[in-house]
Design goal:
The protein is α+β, with helices and mostly antiparallel strands. The chain is built from twelve helices and 14 strands. The strands form two sheets. Strands 1, 2, 3, 4, 5, 6 and 14 form a seven-stranded mixed β-sheet that branches. Strands 8-9-10-11-12-7-13 form a seven-stranded mixed β-sheet.
């Protein structure tokens, strides 16, 4: 169902292989109509010492467009409830489309979740606009740069397997600068090779005078080209020449030329989403990543309510207690990063 509207690579079987590199294993729930697969969800699971198995669904379940949606959603919700109550001590779900999925799970004992297993909002650009309209939607700063990159020695090219070492090195540099866990080269290689043969991944490399200084890995699914990973050498001229903006602008134009419906700049932080919900919010109230993404003129795309089912009474009491105080929330944030990053580290 990779072409189903709003689908994401996190619900493709190749993603299970990617997450296996950091300690996760997949479980699946499926809905069938006669012998036709009409819906499903990939649940990624890992065992936590002293607690048991915890699972999450990132941007799922997926329901086929032509299927009887209400019946399929109900069947998948039943299956996820059963899985959460009998085989897992906790299950977290970030649906991808339709409030009906969240409602069905809430009716079966799930509750609203702030765990953040996947970003709850992102910035998207409608590629049905003309290139002139897309350019007009850019911030003044980026729009000025579109006429200066070439004369400044900045060039962007579409990459491939030969650029994986460059990408991994630039990701390492970014991790060191921002203080988050480094992605292993194995994770990056697995991600690329799992999706390259089916056209679900692309790399773009930004160069200054022929020297690679920035790179982005994009995944493609459901008619959307989505930024997944960005690496940058901050010791190079890349920062002052806004090479990451050049990467996204050229990737956006490439996506339009190749028939994609939307360009996705990647998820926003929970703090940015909260700030944007307030009237008259200024850009100074947003983190740098949010300001950068909104500079391309896209719209805020909200996903449905995230939900959770914590079937272990002990875990639920501890989780709720920690959530009630700042120190506890900090501990939960560390636990969340550990769960997301896995054994060797990842950001997705």
């Amino acid at each position: 169902m990779s072409e189903t509207k709003e689908s994401d690579v996190t619900q493709l079987s190749g993603w299970a292989a990617v997450r296996r590199t950091v300690g996760y294993e997949p479980l699946y729930v499926f809905a069938w109509q006669s012998d036709v697969l009409v819906g499903g969800a990939q649940v990624l699971v890992r065992r936590v010492p002293l607690l048991g198995r915890i699972g999450y669904v990132s941007y799922g379940p997926i329901v086929a467009a032509a299927a009887p949606r209400a019946a399929v959603v109900a069947a998948l919700a039943d299956a996820l409830e059963g899985l959460g109550r009998t085989r897992l001590c906790a299950l977290f779900v970030q649906p991808v489309e339709g409030d009906d999925v969240s409602a069905a799970l809430l009716a079966r004992g799930f509750r609203d979740s702030m765990a953040g297993v996947a970003p709850a909002a992102t910035v998207r650009i409608d590629l049905s606009a003309t290139e002139e309209e897309l350019r007009a939607g850019l911030s003044k700063r980026i729009r000025r740069w579109t006429g200066k990159w070439a004369s400044s020695g900045v060039a962007v090219r579409r990459g491939g397997v030969a650029d994986l070492e460059i990408l991994a090195d630039l990701l390492r540099r970014t991790a060191e600068h921002q203080g988050f866990s480094e992605l292993s080269p194995d994770y990056v290689r697995t991600l690329f090779h799992q999706f390259a043969d089916h056209g679900h991944v692309d790399i773009f490399v930004g160069e200054v005078d022929g020297e690679p200084v920035a790179a982005e890995l994009f995944t493609t699914c459901g008619g959307v080209l989505r930024c997944r990973l960005t690496g940058l050498d901050r010791s190079s001229p890349a920062v002052r020449l806004s090479v990451t903006s050049a990467l996204d602008w050229e990737a956006m134009k490439w996506a339009k030329a190749n028939g994609y419906a939307e360009f996705d700049l990647g998820g926003l932080s929970a703090a940015a989403v909260t700030a944007l919900a307030k009237e008259g919010v200024s850009s100074s109230a947003l983190d740098g990543a949010a300001r950068f993404k909104l500079g391309f003129g896209g719209r805020l795309h909200h996903y449905p309510r995230a939900v959770e089912l914590i079937s272990s009474p002990l875990l639920r009491r501890v989780y709720d207690l920690l959530s009630s105080g700042s120190a506890g929330r900090a501990a939960l944030d560390k636990a969340r990063k550990w769960m997301r990053h896995g054994v060797r580290g990842s950001r997705t």
